[in-house]
Amino acid sequence: MRRLSLLGLLLLALPGTALAHGGHDHAAPPGWTWDPAITLPLLIAAIAFCLGWRRLHARSTGGRARLERCSTWFAIGWLVLAGALVSPLHEAGERSFTAHMIEHELIMLLAAPLLVLAEPLATMLWAFPPPARRTLGAMGMAIAPTYRWASGAVVATLLQAAALWIWHMPSLFDLALANEAWHAVQHLCFLVSALLFWTAMLGRRGAGASAAADRALAGLCLLATSIVTGALGALMAFATSPWYAGYARLALAPFGLTPAEDQQVAGLIMWVPGGLVHLGAALLLFRTLIAAPRTADAV
Known about the structure:
Elements lengths: L4 H9 L22 H24 L4 H23 L1 H5 L4 H22 L1 H6 L4 H21 L2 H15 L2 H9 L1 H23 L6 H30 L6 H4 L10 H40 L1
């Protein structure tokens, strides 16, 4: 079901299609983004989850604790995503690569795993009447094999790494900064690849040796991701000149940083906090592998 939950999470990916960093007065302080193309999908997703949760909670008996946990994950993940897309941080990303990087890290490293943990699709389906619920469920089952493949540990890791490295190529990044449609594609790639990746990392495991193998593979993929993202961040951090013409033209970023210094700070953010998140998640998975045999021996 967690893999099918990506269908519901695509509602939350829609705001990313409206993001483009241009057309604002860079002399004024960054403001809130109230673009309906961003706020409406967020609102629709929140309403669908709340309505579905209310109906499920009223019908459920033994599963209420799990429903409440999922609602907590969803609420926090939704607030992080909305904050990244609507708060002044989003508009600040138009003039600072550091702010832009923080926005992406919040989406990919915090909002995405929290939303995956919430498993919102099953809850959202209950917001619809039975006929629509059956139709949506059938659609989900039809594309489930594709999602199972894309959210496999190795495939999802490769997809996310490809999205990060390809979209940080200077030519493509400048294209995204200058063109609204391409920036929409960039943000959508980041969010969807992160949802696939964390679905693979946090998905339910089988039993026995199969579960241990799945956790070990996920841990290795997390370690590989920490290296891949860390390498990209390190290249940015040690670069002495700005990679992206869109930011270089601004001359001075906020806080008096030059574009090169702004890029170096952004690289450090990707390298250190980003790498630590993946490394910490890998260590937690490996810890479960070590703790399981000890528990079995104690019994």
